[in-house]
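Field reference: sequence -> structure
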Amino acid sequence: MMQEVKSAASSRKKTPTPAAKPGSYPNTGSGAGTGPAFQHYQGAVQLLQQAKYEKALAAFEKLLPEAPIEIKERCQMYIQTCRRQLERTKLAFVTPEEHYDYAVSQLNDGYFEEAREQFGKILSAHPGADYAFYGLALLDSITGRTQDCLNNLARAIELNPRNRLQARADNDFQSMVDDPRFTELLYPEIP
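Structure field:
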């Protein structure tokens, strides 16, 4: 008798629950995912994916009060994501050195265009900021912009001769060591 129960239980096929696809909506079995709220949700997600955070935030906030339970939690999560991204773009720096530290962190994290933009902003506000020229020279070295590296490093050294000593020991200029113009810049002949 036990054998019959086991075989009856094992002969039933178990249908696995389908996994939700990324970006799909939970299905409640009542046509979820087809109403206007879900269409607005999809539009807001697209805005978020396109990094249009202000528009996405407005869309999610408008949708939240009437959002079906299936997407309400996701809307709240995306609202927080949009707010974090918007705060990140509204950075305020007390000093140019603090701004420089941020630019260097972008450089170190591999966000080269963001770093270049930040160094440019420093120089717009403080044209004599030797450390910003030095940072640009580092960035140019890392990204293979040889002539820009030489120009920015020359300007950094002109504004502050100690940058010459720092550049001699800086491993980020490794790609420049075989360039005779770089060597001449770091070790000028004294007349």
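Note: The first helix runs from residue 2 to 11.
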